[in-house]
Amino acid sequence: MSATGEQVDPNRSSRAVSEVVELVSTLIRFDTSNTGDPATTQGESECAHWVADQLHEAGFVTEYVESGIPGRGNVFARLAGADPDRGALMIHGHLDVVPAEAADWSVHPFSGAVREGYVWGRGAVDMKGMVGMMLAVARQFKLEGTVPPRDLVFAFIADEEAGGTWGSHWLVDNRPELFDGVTEAVGEVGGFSLTVPRRDGSERRLYLVQTAEKNLSWMRLRAKARAGHGSFLHEENAVTLLADAVARLGKHTFPLVLSDSVAEFLAAVAEETGLQFDPTQPDIEGQLAKLGTISRIVGATLRDTANPTMLKAGYKANVIPQTAEAVVDCRVLPGRQEAFEREVDELIGPDVEREWIVKHDSYATTFDGDLVEAMNTAVLAHDPQARTVPFMLSGGTDAKAFARLGIRCFGFAPLQLPAELDFSALFHGVDERVPVASLEFGTRVLEHFLLHS
Ligand SMILES: [Zn+2]
């Protein structure tokens, strides 16, 4: 979406802008590594209590909620808006991060070091950067007595990195009243800029607003056959049965489906750059490569994927085991679930059973309406080179849980990024870091957006 917004002095400072870097750096210093095993996951509750302290200090009343398991900390704070009859807008961010191997990093992953114009550390982009921005803007609004147009709910959430079972999904199932009155929400992943070359030689910064995400489903495959001695002739081997099914599934290319958000994104890129994308051609992934590193995400939103990730069978070299198991990470496009499952069943055949270990639905909304207009206006006010475009995320976020309550969700964590930065590689990557200038820009945009939403 492109329109001329109200121009704002981009260098204008504010309380939020002046403290955002320190907040993000401190957030990173809480090691909130989420291993997926509740017994070894740590730090979320200390981090959540610290967030609550920052909100209390500004005058908020907060609610600390443990999501089903001791130590899984969530914090909620509400700011009353001018029109209580309008639905509330929730701004959400998760406090957990994926683990990091310190030896691989240039700086300690939980140092929150500020150097060379970046804040470094695990979570800098996923997503303590946004959490710090939320916190900075919430504190500023409360301290300065700002009344936004509608009620705002600031939500700091546990366990996103393990699918939200002990975070967003638990909260939606067990404490739905926390979301009373919330009609729309913004969180990760979206709002970041992607610089593309224009036909006339200039550059355009596209800001990718997430309007859709694939489903997230983890499938267990199990083959059962006859156990036996490894030296005998043996036709019904569970390992062989399973391996055949896994190989067929892993090598399979699911059909190309051009979802609305992907089509709109590609059309906008084509319009700006002159690059043409023809999804009917077999080399669409090759065409997308011209987009640079973002093609890793966009390419994964053209088809369902099923990637085998774990294998388990046997206990001794000369014993043919009775069962063999595999886990497959499946990501299914909106509207494709039934067709996907039919295709999987054909590939694995009748001798291999399947079950879902985790299954969270896909999500899609349209790129229109007042909230989208507010995002567009806020971005343009601070970056006249901007154009906001919708996109689909290949991964999953807490939006899956909130959408179950009928909340309309977007990924909008605004960041203006240097053109050369390989942003997508930083998610869960080594030397994860976020530019200081991007955080300051994002804080201004977030503030503008929340004041006009
Ligand atoms: Zn995240």
Secondary structure blueprint with pairings:
Layout: H1 15-29, H2 44-58, E1 62-66, E2 73-79, E3 88-94, E4 114-115, E5 118-120, H3 128-144, E6 152-157, H4 168-174, E7 182-187, E8 192-197, E9 203-213, E10 216-224, E11 228-229, H5 238-251, H6 260-273, H7 284-288, H8 295-299, E12 305-313, E13 319-320, E14 323-331, H9 337-348, E15 352-360, E16 363-364, H10 370-382, E17 386-393, H11 399-403, E18 408-411, H12 423-426, E19 433-435, H13 436-451
Parallel strand pairs: 3-6, 3-7, 7-18, 9-17
Antiparallel strand pairs: 1-2, 2-6, 4-5, 5-19, 8-9, 9-16, 10-14, 10-15, 11-13, 12-14
Bound molecules: zinc ion.
The site of zinc ion (ZN) has 5 residues, from loops.
Structure description:
- With 453 residues, this protein is an alpha+beta fold.
- It is built from 13 helices and 19 strands.
- It has helices spanning 15-29, 44-58, 128-144, 168-174, 238-251, 260-273, 284-288, 295-299, 337-348, 370-382, 399-403, 423-426, 436-451, and strands spanning 62-66, 73-79, 88-94, 114-115, 118-120, 152-157, 182-187, 192-197, 203-213, 216-224, 228-229, 305-313, 319-320, 323-331, 352-360, 363-364, 386-393, 408-411, 433-435.
- The chain has a 6-stranded mixed β-sheet with strand order 1-2-6-3-7-18.
- A hairpin with a 6-residue loop joins strand 1 (62-66) and strand 2.
- Helix 1 (15-29) crosses helix 3, helix 2 (44-58) packs parallel to helix 3 (128-144) and helix 3 crosses helix 13 (436-451).
- The longest helix has 17 residues, at 128-144.
- The chain is globular, with a radius of gyration of 23 Å.
- The site of zinc ion has 5 residues, from loops.
